[in-house]
Amino acid sequence: MTEPNQSDATLGGHPKALYFLAFTELWERFSFYGMTSLLTLYMVKQLLLPGHAEHVAGLAALRHVFELRAPMTDLAFAALIYGWYSGLVYFTPILGGWIADRALGANRTVIIGALLMSAGHLAMSFDLSFLLALVLLILGSGCLKGNISAQVGALYPAEAESLRARGFTIFSTGINIGAAAGPLVTGGVAAVFGWHAGFGVAAGLMLLALATYIVGQRYLPASRPPGERRMKRAPLNVAERRRIWVLFAIIALTIPAEIAYPMVWSIGIVWVDQQVNLTSAFGAVPASWFNSVDSIGSILAAPVLIVLWAWQARRKFEPDSLGKIGIGMVLICLSALVLAVGSALSLAPGQVAVGWALSGFLLMGLAWMYYWPTLLALVSHAAPRSVTGAMVGAAFLSPFIAHTAAGWVGSFYDQMSPATFWTMDAGIAALGAALVFALRGPLGRVLDQPMEADQVNIANG
Questions:
Q1: Is 192 helix (H, G, I), strand (E, B) or coil?
Q2: Distances from the Cα of 163 to the Cαs of 155, 159, 186, 360, in angstroms?
Q3: How far is CA 72 from the centre of its chain?
Q4: What's the CATH number where 33 sits?
Q5: What is the pTM of this model?
Q6: What is the pLDDT at residue 9?
Q7: Residue range 415-435, pLDDT digits in tens
Q8: How many domains does the chain have?
Q9: What is the separation of C-alpha 242 from the centre of its chain, rounded to a whole number of angstroms?
Q10: What is the pLDDT of residues 7-27, one digit of tens each?
Q11: Is residue 233 assigned to a domain?
Q12: Nearest 5°: phi and psi at 15?
């Protein structure tokens, strides 16, 4: 791949490459969240019903595996499928980072990922290939997600921590614009033309993401040949290995947030469909549209946070990365409590005032902007350069473990009251916040140490 001829071009103080990466993620998230907003409702209302379930290749065998503990309802089965799917989507970026670092380079790996995801969305348009579609989406996301995030981090000098964090906030705003628009478009199309038409729209949007990435190639830093990277990679020293373990600990600390927050994407949509009063002057609002609300909250929060953090940085009291992650978990806890209170005050199913749902989902979006872009920025900055792609991919271990666990937690939704369920969800986030603030000091001190410290100590003998 040739060297980019405009990689140093800037716009608004940030490299132009940032905006191409952000728009690529915008369209990719447009398709991804458009599909996932339909997924649980589609399974519960059509795919798992007689007349459809028996036509899905491999579905009966998968249900047999999941029911080894006990027979389960269709909702519980759907929650487990969603949990494993969304969890594996966040596991495969580790493999994608390894492929990019050791074999193909980030640019080629991202392109392959976009092609696999396009095929997966298209396969989702048919009952027969439902499980194959999920596999293609899992593999494609693995090639794409972590490598784009690593490319964002590589655009900034090592010392530009605050600017990098703001760059990731801009990047995450692109993600959330797509995540907000996707459910509205695919949900509207599915409501009018059927579930499979909604999934077909997602396939077209994924191809648009691929086109955006290809057009922006001239602004992106070129990947070095894999052989050159292998020859120049020095062994990690003690300080670098210690830093890697600390980053893994920080990634693990976000697991409670990644259990509690994404619950609104699966069980949350079922809760809206069953418990919230969706009537309006224009008729009933599709429940799938609520998958846009938390992303709208993130979009509204982004410019405020960019200005706030820049103002705090100038006055030397901007929260550090771990502090922001902890604040995000506190906000997740409050968001889930809003849903619990709304449920508790409802007199009957389908009568929860829509304001409770909107408030809880919007606050979740603000919480996400505090903890997830911050985690990616921290890992991309603090990881040793030779393993940046793999470490950014490793950041997705948190949602892998958490989303899989969330599928198990969500499978108990129909065995308790909605208020009790959302209170439990809030408790998970509260536990995570307590752990982050308890460990913030010792973990931060390790990250503040230069990675060259051990080499200097050895030299001084």
A1: helix
A2: 10, 9, 35, 30
A3: 28
A4: 1.20.1250.20
A5: 0.75
A6: 65
A7: 899 999 999 999 999 999 999
A8: 1
A9: 26
A10: 456 666 677 888 888 888 888
A11: no
A12: -60, 140
